[in-house]
Amino acid sequence: MTQLLWRELGPEFGVEVMGVEPQVPLAENVIAQLRELFDAKGLLVLRDIDADPRFQTYLSRLLIGEEPLANGMAGLDAAVGERQLLVSNREPGSSAPMGRLLYHSDYMWSPDVFRLLSLYGVKVEEPTSPTMFVSAVRAWETLPDDLRARVEGRFAIHGQDATYQQRAGGDADVLVSKFAVDETLRLPVGHRHPRTGVTLLYVAQQMTHRIDGMDDAASEALLEELFDHLYRPENVVEHHWREHDLVLWDNIALQHARPNIMIEGPARTLRKTFAPAPTMAAEMRPAFTTVGA
Questions:
Q1: What is the structure's pLDDT at 282?
Q2: Please, where are the H alpha helices in 83-189?
Q3: Beta-strand runs (E) in 166-240
Q4: Percent of the chain, pLDDT > 90?
Q5: Is the pTM of this model over 0.90?
Q6: Residues pairing with 290 in the sheet
């Protein structure tokens, strides 16, 4: 029986896991240990692992309770092409090729929000730009009483348009993602995680438009207080990339961001997978620019 080793990456969430062999299928006791760690810690890092797209897709689905081999290897292979893209400043047609990303959860504005995201280091040159994570679970648990009282029972409106660029703070390098079709979703500020049942502070710099029922100035002032709490430096776990790193996280419980990436900077090509598979219609693929472009 394989017993995995792991170490804490932060005081509240995130672990680096050692001892996982990238094979399909994994042993049942390994699956059980990984699922338990994922549910408890929200962020798993596997370093120096030779993970091909099939294994990355397989593990991504396993961690959220799906059965990736329900239709056999052929079913898994068919899913691989639907569930990956590149995040790269080198490869043509890649997602988010440049700029600084504000904190967000992918597709937070959709009722079909991704439950898990993963990135794998395909080509990474030094000095590399990290990915930063914060926990919306911890943020809700530690929310000051006065601030909690002001958001209890309130709802937030999340959207996919580019209105958030006002939060760039004068940084011309902040990345703007613009979709062809605007979509919004109204959810409680204290949102319950659909799988684990825990309560989250569900607002984000990049995805939250406003607090419902408040005028624009009051809404933005309240959101800024929530952001100050959510993104305090002591709440952040940074992952500094190396080639052959596989990082998987709960896209609902955690938010992620990154510093500026330059097209002409060191190569940073990461393979990204989603669970469950997204609907990647043309109108759902954003165009990328920066605030200063």
A1: 43
A2: 136-141, 145-151
A3: 175-178, 184-188, 190-192, 199-201, 208-211, 237-239
A4: 77
A5: yes
A6: 175
